[in-house]
Amino acid sequence: MREGFDLARGGVMPWAPVLLGCGIGLYFTLGSEPGAALLSAAVLIAVALTVAALRGPDLWRAPALALALLVAGLVLAAVRSHLVAAPVLSFRYYGPVEGRIVDIDRSFSDQPRLTLDRVVLEDVAPDRTPTRVRIALHGMQQQIDPQPGLRVILTAHLSPPEGPVEPGGFDFQRLAWFSRLGAVGYTRTPVLALEAPEGRMALLAFRLRMALSGAMQARMEGQAGAFAAALMTGDRSGVSAATNDALRGSNLSHLISISGLHMGLLTGFVFAACRYGLALAPPLALRLPSKKIAAWVALLAASFYLVLAGPNVATRRAFIMAAVMLVAVLADRRAISLRSVALAALIVLVLEPESLVEPGFQMSFGATVALIVAFQPWTRVQNRVPRPLRPVAMMILSSAAAGFATAPIAAAHFNRIAEYGLLANMFAVPIMGMVVMPAGVVAALLAPLGLAAPALWAMEKGCALILAVADWVAGLDGAVVAVPTPPDAALPLIALGGIAALIGRALWLRGTGAALVAVALGLWAGAERPTLLVSGDGAIVGLMEEAGRALSKPKGAGFVAKSWLEDDGDMALQEVAYARPGFAGVKGALSAELAGVTALHFTGKGAAERAAGSCSGGALVILSENWSGAPASDCRVYDAAKLRATGALAIHAGPDGLRIVSAREASGERLWNRRPERRDRAKKPQ
């Protein structure tokens, strides 16, 4: 009886994170937040299924365990959503903001940005004050050097986190909710210090990270220093937008985000150095378990790297993956296997279920699984490859496997495919593994002795070479191919199909997986983009034409415009899209024809006045101010007030007329997009 269950459990184990993830994914696709009664019932069902898996007939145990994991994933995600609940600003705020600096990075527009906690807002009750706010520093003459833990005051514009720029698009509100980020905004005034930095342990690590980053950038030139600092400390505030664009265009952006690659290279180098170092002393090597000692030392190095780089999601995920494999070595188990990857994924999903919908989680585990599967046949044929060519063959195989697994994920999230990504990775990854990371470890060990200069020099040259490869590859003709956003079902089908095809034991399961991937790609190829897109504030609209989407504004609303074009698979600049034919009329009062319906767009000061008298003949009226005329009866009006409730709009024109979908309808009523009572606050500080 027990042996039968063990066999069933062995068959389910590699699928355990997949089943748990399906439950988590189901939670995020619900149209409304599950109530207490539904969650209680789900808990009871999960318990009953678990009992059946433990004590039921052998034939039922594996299916019962699979269903239990599915239901547990839904409950886990719901509980996590409630546990991270924090106040969200419900109105636009302008006034003094006090807070403690807990993060420093750069914004979409390449401006310095501060994240503050322990926030104080004027005339806002503590129970309504966001736990964290993020403020971009625009065009200011900075009077202080931002330091971790420093309490500051500034005058800022704040607003609630915005919803998707189009229905079904990236949901920043959800990301902000799980980050406990209750408001975002900007300031054009100086940041003033109120209190000296605090000395709490978490902030000490942050302060050490920023100090090391500053020291590295002072010793290295230009972007090579900023790149090296990002690799070793996680501080990306010095990396310019141009460098990020080159890394994305060459499919090397994964090198700048501390991930499984960095943690693997670090722990691998420390493990090998420690083990072979002990081997150089035969008396020690014969008496001590050098392999396990090396694993302990590598685990300590990974722990220090985690503390130094900060416990962000990507770093925690990378640490868990490395720790699971090192613990496997300590337990005399195979370190790199599907079971160890499954265990690491389970730990990540239990601790942070929201990781499932993040591209970092998907790409990290997708690449790892692909590498394990790809190297299984390699072990059988490697002896047939000449020894000098084996490293090259392994590099090509690993880059191809990881690239093949992550390409559809990257395309779905970032709307681009780096055509020469394999070429760039073949040049850059060996430099990272053989020069940059080893030099970084050596520099860290020699820095207390004041002997780190040679290692830092080697690291700088390696980083400069990687950036040169990125610039070269990104500059090649056709280096980046834009792709449209896939339908909602496409990426889950690709993920499930890919997993089944890669790890399925039965031939029919692998065939089913391949079929699911083919169906998903077919759905993706046949996806149609909305005819008209409307921003959540009514300030900009985009009309799809044969030449591409025409935008109603040449500048302003840059993030929205860029996101729309990228989702279309269009790499045009906003100014180019504005010049496309599509709209008639003059600035502030544009019109277009959609399936026999006249769409009118009024923006700017006095938009409501210009819209007066336009409500006739079933027109669709969009304006960036509140409708001030008589109640609309012969048209559909989406003014500023209504758009605040609906969010951005996607309008599809067809033979049956217009089909309008709002971001609110697509997202549903969830914890992170509740509609609290709103009020504007524009009072300036006295």
Would you give an account of this structure?
The protein is α+β, with helices and mostly antiparallel strands and 686 residues long. Helices cover 52% and strands 15% of the residues. The strands form four sheets. The protein has a five-stranded mixed barrel with strand order 1-2-3-5-4. It has a five-stranded antiparallel β-sheet with strand order 11-10-9-17-18. A five-stranded mixed β-sheet has the order 12-13-14-15-16. Helix 8 crosses helix 17 (453-474). It is globular, with a radius of gyration of 27 Å. The termini are far apart. Residues 1-10 and 678-686 have low confidence and may be disordered. It is found in: Cell membrane. Keywords: Cell membrane, Membrane, Transmembrane, Transmembrane helix. Pfam families: Competence, DUF4131. The chain crosses the membrane at residues 12-30, 37-54, 60-79, 255-273, 293-314, 335-351, 363-381, 393-414, 426-451, 463-483, 489-508.
Radius of gyration: 27 Å
Mean pLDDT: 86
State the major sheet: 5 strands, mixed, barrel
* Low-confidence runs: 1-10, 678-686
Strand order of the main beta sheet, please? 1-2-3-5-4
Q: Determine the structural class based on helices, strands and strand pairing.
A: alpha+beta
Distance between the termini: 77 Å
Q: Strand percentage, roughly?
A: 15-25%
* Shape annotation: globular
Number of strands: 18
**Continuous helix count:** 24
Q: How much helical structure, as a percent, in the residues? A: 40-55%
Domain DUF4131: 36-190
Keywords: Cell membrane, Membrane, Transmembrane, Transmembrane helix
Subcellular location: Cell membrane
Domain ComEC/Rec2-related protein: 231-504
